[in-house]
Design a protein that fits this description.
- The protein is α/β, with parallel strands linked by helices.
- The chain is built from eight helices and 16 strands.
- About 20% of the residues lie in helices and about 30% in strands.
- Helix 4 packs parallel to helix 5.
- The longest helix is centred in the first third of the chain and has 16 residues.
Length: about 325
């Protein structure tokens, strides 16, 4: 979008014409969308700068945001960005569908997301959404196909996240993936999807539910965090992660289920595990292990494996044990 080469104060924009584009856009990052709408009608230059902001923040999580008029404004706003070919570098969407009377609101939100991504250039996408009842949110395929995307953060508000199957042409530049408070169908192969991201370095899974087994084999991962997962999860396999150097696991599965943990990360340097011991445990010798933090109660089921667990980290230069004891 072309910007005016000569900045003239029209006398009714409160001095915004005297600001550089970068400073103006930075100010926009700290105000809500409803205030952006008000600012865009102050002057022609303000309107152009509001539309051309490369960092886009959309939210209806406010007592003064949302509703048909607000949604219609966002429709027009996004359409203008598409007409002028404005590329979005950073896209943040925080949206609640609870109490909505608009039957097409989910479709509209998906359209905004597609418009932001399809023009290219987006490197960071953060999504947080709330849906009523048992509904699910389908992540548009264009997000995972976006080859410029390097960081994807999704907070589902304990909603079922419907992920597409894993074709071989998914984003190859994605480096960081964070999933929070989402449900995933047990028959969905999360490991297969992750294996498509050949540049993935950081994977964080927090409060993930619905899965009984999880297998991660992406050899590019360097930092892996699996925390507060559903107690339904019984089996975790972390296999052939040769670049993994930092692993954090917080896991308390159901006591009535048989559980297993298999780790193959020969270059692991930091290992933190909190929860309870498992029935089947194996960990490949990590000669480079520097720091291990183990917090497993000795009285929990499967404590016959506690000695095996401690032996697997005995070469760590710094070892911290909590709630553990072993009778020698």
């Amino acid at each position: 979008m072309e910007m005016p080469t000569k900045k003239q104060n029209s006398g009714d924009d409160f001095g915004f014409s005297d600001l550089s584009d970068e400073v103006f856009h930075r100010i926009l990052n700290f105000i809500e969308m409803r205030d952006v709408a008000r600012l865009s009608v102050v002057s022609k230059r303000c309107r152009e700068l509001c539309i051309s902001n490369p960092r886009l923040y959309l939210s209806n999580i406010s007592s003064k945001s949302g509703g048909p008029r607000f949604n219609s404004y966002v429709d027009r706003f996004m359409a203008l960005r598409c007409v002028h070919g404005v590329k979005t570098e950073r896209f943040v969407l925080r949206w609640s569908f609870e109490g909505s009377v608009d039957q097409d609101e989910e479709y509209r939100v998906e359209t905004w997301l597609q418009n932001a991504v399809n023009l290219g250039g987006v490197t960071e996408v953060r999504l947080k959404f709330f849906l009523p009842g048992p509904q699910h949110f389908a992540l548009p395929l264009c997000v995972l196909r976006c080859n410029s995307l390097t960081f994807l953060n999704i907070d589902g508000g304990n909603t079922l996240l419907k992920l597409p199957s894993a074709p071989p042409y998914f984003a190859t530049k994605l480096q960081r993936l964070h999933l929070h408070h989402v449900g995933i169908k047990n028959d969905f192969n999360l490991g297969e999807l992750l294996s498509c991201f050949m540049s993935l370095k950081v994977l964080k899974l927090d409060n993930i539910c619905g899965m009984k087994g999880m297998t991660i084999t992406n050899s590019s991962i360097e930092i892996l965090s699996i925390t507060s997962v559903d107690r339904q999860l019984c089996d975790v396999e972390i296999q052939q992660l040769h670049k993994l150097y930092d692993l954090k696991l917080v896991w308390i599965p159901k006591s009535s289920s048989r559980t297993s943990l298999k780790i193959s990360a020969p270059n692991l340097q930091r290992f933190q595990w909190a929860g309870i011991t498992v029935d089947d445990y194996s960990m490949r010798d990590s000669a480079d292990l520097l720091h291990a933090i183990i917090q497993l109660p000795a009285h929990s089921r499967g404590n016959h494996n506690l000695v095996k667990i401690l032996q697997s980290v005995q070469k760590a230069r710094h070892l911290e044990l909590y709630d553990c004891f072993v009778e020698m």
